Amino acid sequence: MTIQTPNGFSLDTSGKRIVVDPVTRIEGHMRCEVNVDAQNVIRNAVSTGTMWRGLEVILKGRDPRDAWAFVERICGVCTGCHALTSVRAVEDALNITIPNNAYLIREIMAKVLQWHDHVVHFYHLHALDWVNPVNALKADPKATSVLQQSISAHSKSSPGYFRDVQNRLKKFVESGQLGIFKNGYWDNPAYLLPPEADLLAVTHYLEALDFQREIVKVHTIFGGKNPHPNYLVGGVPCAINMNGDMAAGAPLNMERLNFVQLKLQEAFEFSQNVLVPDVIAIASFYKGWLYGGGLSGQNVMDYGDYAAIQGQKKTDRLPGGVILNGNWDEILPIDPRDPDQVQEFVSHSWYTYGDADKDKGLHPWDGITDPKFDLGPNFKGTRTDIKQVDENAKYSWIKAPRWRGNAVEVGPLARYILAYAHGVPFVKGQVDEALGRFNSLAGTQLTVKQALPSTIGRTLARALEAHYCAHMMLDDFSALIANIKAGDTATANMEKWDPATWPKEAKGVGTVAAPRGGLGHWIKIKDGRIENYQCVVPTTWNGGPRDPKGNIGAFEASLLNTPMERPEEPVEILRTLHSFDPCLACSTHVMSDDGEELARVTVR
Amino acid sequence: MSDQGIHARILVLGIGNILWADEGFGVRVLEALDRDHVFPEHVTLLDGGTQGLYLLPYLEDAEGVVIIDAVDYGLAPGTLHILVDDEVPAVLASRKVSLHQTGFQEILGLLTLRGHTPTRIVLVGVQPERLDDYGGGLTATVAAQVEAAAAKVLKVLRADFNVWVTEREETPEGLLAAPIARDPYESERPSAEDACRIGDPRILTRS
């Protein structure tokens, strides 16, 4: 049976059903079911968040100034971006402007997080969807050296260097504890890299670990500690004293700032010489695999972020907006406060707004999170052991957010399509150059509009964004130094710290360009306490279920029409889902209603 | 043994999500250890939360590691259980009671690949009673084991790593941000009625 969705996709549920549960190498719990036709092409896709988070219940009644510390604990990956979004929401509600130093320090911290997250995602969560570490053992290190020298000026490029890594890898594999590389489908024909490229990527998998451990030291300096840096409503919790000493907990001084600058420069060089060239080179070997675009060819959204001047949205260095129907010539403005724009639907989610309002969309300020675990007439299995969900009924712990009723994709790819359409010079230069290199390596002539809306394009956009962040944070750093040298050492505005200065009721919204896409927190404050707190997170936008009209979301759309080499080995499904960097720790709201974890099946 | 430089680094790592009732056990035991004792310079107490790769640098720098966590051993709630070395990744792999474990198991694999495996890993675990009380603190059963677990950690530190602590006399700054330190987190939690955990249309009414 074929169904045409209002947003232009056709779904056919007649073929064999494959269940992947849990989807591995992501944060949180996710399940995916697809139907494939006789040729093993995916014709229907169903994305299910299998956990409930209960965040609203955690925050209600707490002090708004403390919310950041709670939301920082939601997830093990995106600590800082939730904390930042939270302080922005509270400052918006209470009309607090923060000192310029605080603004710049937060900007640097946000971009360090973005860079770190993107690098870790590519090498440690996503690369193994393209790279075969077992095949790297067959490589000639000389060939890897030639490949490295042909793609970038990275200094570590000698045959001996790659031979050493290969020997370490060999020892590791021979020890029988494949560990991190186990559960791979290493003889699947979906892997297309020659051994020398596999060895290159595995080598950089290890190098990236060294870089990720260095860059996070910036968070320790500005945030006081890691992995849970401190935030502060009104500014940042670190003082500046350029003549101070280096004692632990001492104010920022020149020595510390010099150290920060060094780390930012190292990050810039790594994304320039390793990350971006690697992604382009790997992509060129997959030039025929342009699947996975899904919704990104049509509808994309971001709130916009990285304003060059605090509070002036028009100076956003990654400007936001919405593009509908693939019309890159028209960018629609977005307003997170407008009750008609961002709305969450629960017709296909395990929540209820009451029978009368079951198909209604609610703006986050009026959001309701009331669980209703109801599996629908066509589900198979039991309530604690689901064999197959019924996507015509409720089937996910994720809500379905929509922008004016439209399903949209969010994330680095959405931001890059928007920035390209806005004509941001740095982004335009990056995308055009990357595509030129891809086309010359692959011998293709793809246009930006053909190449970007794809799984590969999504992965490329993330790498380019990491490098753009490295570029921007160096600018932020220069601005910070200039500001301090001009005599401004303020880092916090405490005028409205005392709740006695607050209105009886207030509401605010904070948005951030988080690693996985536009993140928003909506807060209502009453009598000095949190009255309602709703987070609409990127994976909710991308991984949410269908809406009342039947529009499918980004994850589901991205899997359609992708051929699978071997349906029992879902390399292609993982590749495309991982390209979104799914993080369900916060997007999903636990377990089944009796507290038991939902049953997990690997592949059927 | 006055020269600190000759000591191998020891990491005491509390992991788990404090927002999920007994999942916060590891972090809360760490907090208690920090509150009551002064540790030698070469011992690091780290609140690992639910982090994965962020923990790698700390683990790589450590010769010995003591992990404190809530682990589902299938025992009676509140039971303490100690595992060492090879038993540790195995238990973190086969039982999955919380979000962070996949990440942590992967970290141990990466340590091997990078040739930085600690010479000894000890896991002090507790059998949780409840995880799905979001925003809640430790259950009474598990809370009753915090001091016992802290004592076990100190015993392991003495026996396996020759680490001796002294009693702390001044109040420490605290390992966690003030609002989520155990006492304010648990004592300032709004009542179930105020926070609409019961009896309001917005709550967890089970249909």
Distance between the terminal alpha carbons of chain A, to the nearest Å?
21 Å
- Helix fraction of chain B? 25-40%
CATH architectural grouping of chain B: 3-Layer(aba) Sandwich
In total, the number of strands of chain A is: 16
Describe the sheet with the most strands of chain B. 5 strands, mixed
Beta strand % of chain A: 5-15%
Mean pLDDT of chain A: 89
* CATH class type of chain B: Alpha Beta
Which structural class do you get from the secondary structure elements of chain B? alpha/beta
How would you classify the quaternary structure? heterodimer
Sheet with most strands: strand arrangement of chain A? 3-4-5
Pfam family, one (chain B): HycI
Organism (chain B): Xanthobacter agilis
Protein name (chain B): Hydrogenase maturation protease
GO molecular function (chain B): peptidase activity
How would you explain this protein's 3D organization?
In chain A, 38% of the residues lie in helices and 13% in strands. With 604 residues, chain A is α+β, with helices and mostly antiparallel strands. Chain A has a single domain, classed as Orthogonal Bundle (Cytochrome-c3 Hydrogenase, chain B). Chain B is of the alpha/beta class. Chain B has one domain: 3-Layer(aba) Sandwich (Rossmann fold). Chain B contains seven helices and seven strands, in the order E-H-E-E-H-E-E-H-H-E-H-H-E-H. Chain B is globular, with a radius of gyration of 18 Å. The C terminus of chain B is likely disordered. The chains are: A alpha+beta (604), B alpha/beta (207).
Characteristic terms for this protein:
heterodimer, A: 604 residues, alpha+beta, Cytochrome-c3 Hydrogenase, chain B, 3-stranded antiparallel beta sheet, B: 5-stranded mixed beta sheet, two-stranded antiparallel sheet, 7 strands, disordered C terminus
Topology (SSEs and partners):
The complex is a heterodimer of chains A (about 600) and B (about 210).
Chain A: E1 2-4, E2 10-12, E3 16-20, E4 30-36, E5 42-49, H1 55-59, H2 67-71, H3 79-94, H4 100-126, H5 141-151, H6 159-174, H7 195-215, H8 217-223, H9 254-285, E6 300-302, E7 305-307, E8 316-318, E9 321-323, E10 342-345, E11 380-382, E12 385-388, E13 400-403, H10 412-422, H11 425-442, H12 448-451, H13 455-485, E14 505-514, E15 517-526, E16 529-536, H14 538-543, H15 554-559, H16 571-578, H17 584-587
Antiparallel strand pairs in A: 1-2, 3-4, 4-5, 6-9, 7-8, 10-13, 11-12, 14-15, 15-16
Helix pairs in contact in A: 4-7, 4-8, 4-9, 4-13, 5-6, 5-7, 7-9, 9-11, 9-13, 10-13, 11-13
Chain B: E1 10-15, H1 25-36, E2 37-38, E3 43-49, H2 56-60, E4 64-70, E5 80-84, H3 87-94, H4 101-113, E6 120-126, H5 140-143, H6 146-161, E7 166-167, H7 182-187
